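Internal ticket #5521
Category: modeling
Description: The requester needs a full-assembly model to guide mutagenesis choices. All entity lines are attached below as received. Residue total reported by intake: 549.
Assigned to: D.W.
Attached entities:
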Amino acid sequence: MKELKLMKGNEALAEAAIRSGCDAYFGYPITPQSEVLEYLSTYAEQRTGMLVLQAESEVAAINMIYGAGGTGKRVMISSSSPGISLMQEGISYIACAEIPCVIVNVVRGGPGLGTIQPSQGDYFQAVKGGGHGDYKLIVLAPSTVQEMADFVPRAFELAFKYRNPVMILTDGALGQMMEKVELFEPIPRKTNIEPWATVGKPKTRERNILTSLHIEPDKMEQINLHLQAKYKTIQGNEIEYETYKCDDADVILTAYGLVARICKKSADLAREKGIKVGVFRPITLFPFPYKQLSKLSGKIKGILDVEMNAGQMVEDVRLAVEGKIPVEFHGRMGGIVPAPDEILQKIVRMDFFREEKFAGELI
Amino acid sequence: MTEEIIIAGFGGQGVLSLGQTLCYAGVIENKEVSWMPSYGPEMRGGTANCITIISDQKISSPIVTKFDTVIALNQPSLDKFENSVKQNGLLIYEASTIINSPKRTDINVLPVDAANEATKLKNNRVMNMIILGAFLQKKPILKIETILEGLKKVLPDRYHHLLPLNEQALKKGMELAEKVNVVVDI
């Protein structure tokens, strides 16, 4: 019998970390994700011996991840938008030194200290590289509490497969809401030692060095070329996306995370009115499903991209579509979540529908 | 069956736990559930609410703006959400503190004198269970037994001696609702 629980997204994520055999968690409290630290502080150590530490700041926490991750163990950190901004220098170092780790951003409304309500305003920061230099995080975007749990072991798997930091990009609503979760069987903590880990040099090999400082430009370019080749491999192998009622759709809503499921409801509402709407949801934001969306755009008349920001993923949607069909945008900001019927109103007001005779009746 | 509910009131009235009780019971009955609370300064300012959805199908949006049932436990919540009840939907409110009654005629309205009844039961905190009982009498979407099972998960162990009182409160709520001639579709 599978274990069914009713959990908050943040709790599901924390429980999944314990069950993923996570070795260490470092963090600093910030709403709306403080339950992660609270849950882990209460349960983690006694269950698996996992280390849970509240650092003195976000900057300290991310550098603890750099150090602990360098031992080749499974390490995780979580925060919310302003806290993640503080970590950007460390994240860039970690990406360059190729330290596997899982970073969770439970996004809140920005810019600045902003609000504590849900937002998707950190898409650019997560996907395009919020820190300096040419690096990429693998970015996973859950849209249910179930996925808040399931994406944690997936993130660890990807982090070690590519020796790359993986970000779980979620939001305050998914963190705070409760849903049914089916928990996976616990994975034991790691016992093997990674060949690159800095855990003391035996006589049998050269010493391992993990660093992001390479003074020689020639050397640094080689490192960059290696990273870019790795990102290309990731783009080839790891794209994940979900389609909902896209087969016969005239219009596609593109959205990720929480908004994608709201869009599913909008699509159903639209279909009740006789408009064939589907939803295309990227699950990996990097690598982004450009080709898949491009292929789909050959069969439809228009796209409405919906986000909780001023229009960020829509740039990738437009890159994928390459101007073949119109791409319109609807966004709410600062912690406001778009409602299903609000999105429906936006669909019927799309330029594409204005030209149709029945548009007047729909509005 | 999909029941979209918003429960709103002051912090401390048991708004969030009412929604959670429904959700736990829903899980036990193998239904899909979603519970989306208001959180942060909104709650510290006095009003709390949670959107609770119970369904036989997978729940797409956990956030909706029109509800099958609105449960309002104070005047500000009633004022704010009266217009969010779907046509022919159900509006339940705690009547003892309400000065301005709801105006709409295209919905079913069920006032419940829950606070006074709770006082009679000698524990003001079971007010929310009286309301829940009234709701379940009009919309029996979940069994009373599973609601009580769910309540066990919501109440911390140290309050489990209050379970019989909560059951009493649930039944009181059903009794009160039975006397009000409101028939609703589920």
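Resolution: model delivered.
Comment from assignee: The CA atoms of residues 113 and 168 of chain B lie 15 Å apart.
Ticket closed.
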